[in-house]
Amino acid sequence: MIQPQTAPEVDGDTRTAPMLLVADPDSALVRELASALEREGVDVAGAPDGAQGLIQAGALRPDVVLVSATLPVIGAVDFVRAVRLSRAVPVLLGVGEGHAEQAVQALAAGATACVARPYRVPELLPMVQAAFSGEPGGRRVLIVGSVELDVHAYQVRVAGRVVHLPLREFELLHYLMRNADRTVTREQIMRHVWNSADSTSTNTIAVHVKRLRARLGDHEDHLIQTVRGVGYRLVTPPATPEE
Fold first, then answer.
1. Domain end among 104, 136, 168
2. What contacts 183, CB < 8 A, 6 or more positions away?
3. Prior bond to 118 cis, omega within 30?
4. Structural domain ending residue among the three candidates 111, 136, 161
5. CATH code, domain with 116
6. Taking phi first (over 0 means left), then psi (-120 to 50 degrees means alpha), and beta for anything else, what does residue 70 get?
7. What is the distance between the alpha carbons of residues 177 and 17, in angstroms, rounded to a whole number?
8. How far is Cα 74 from Cα 79, in angstroms, rounded to an integer?
9. The domain containing residue 42 runs over which residues?
């Protein structure tokens, strides 16, 4: 649920779920993002302009702040600069086409990174979770068997060897690794990786899974298993007994 515009101060030490503050004038976009993130256990607060956003940032003390490059009243660059004066919180700038200049200025003002707008859950979720868990620099590495995935470096290694993945395959692998040993449905994959509610594009998923298996050297499909009629499961290999 999107938090109201005026909210009591939240003690970051007692909060049990990560919180993202989204300062963006597009209320429909914020509601859609909030709905998706809350299914992942993230609380979302919204602010329609920079002035309201600064109030919310002070009152709620979110784990991550996401600000649109098109922010009204107090612009994105001034917003980033103001937040930086009061808190060492990750600030992400949501950018689209034509926002290159705002991105350069916001990064110079102290923004942590730029993300795509319209927003994408697979891109935002690991950043929010990493900030909430207190991982240094928001860095997060997932390891399943011989596969290592660095969320923020967008790098994958298999048995120490760097494997270059297209962005969509990287996000697919990331989602499967986050849900290791659990079966995820095709509908869940479409929603979280493609940000789509279209459950009919099963061939799209199958093609990407096939390519991902080939790049990972999973020729026998032991790592990424197909659960017929349901979806896929990435399996943690059994531990090898020490000799």
1. 136
2. 227, 230, 231, 232, 233
3. yes
4. 136
5. 3.40.50.2300
6. alpha
7. 21
8. 6
9. 2-136
In a domain, 104, yes or no: yes
Number of domains in the chain: 2
Give the number of other Cβ atoms within 10 Å of residue 133's Cβ. Answer: 11
- Whether 117 and 154 map to the same domain: the answer is no
Pairing relationship of beta strands 231-234 and 224-227 according to DSSP bridges: antiparallel
The count of other CB atoms within 10 Å of the CB of residue 108 is: 11
pTM above 0.70, yes or no: no
Are 188 and 151 within 8 A, CB to CB? no
Q: Are residues 159 and 132 in the same domain?
A: no
Residues 123 and 29 in one domain: yes
Report how far residue 213's alpha carbon sits from residue 173's, in angstroms, rounded to the nearest whole number: 10
pLDDT digits (tens, 9 = 90+) for 88-97: 688 899 998 8
CATH number at residue 178: 1.10.10.10
Pairing of strands 43-47, 161-163: unpaired
Helix (H, G, I), strand (E, B) or coil at 78: helix
Question: Mind listing the pLDDT tens digit for each residue in 186-236?
Answer: 988 988 788 776 655 678 999 999 999 999 998 888 899 999 989 999 998
Tell me the sheet residues that pair with 4.
none
C-beta separation of 50 from 21 below 8 A: no
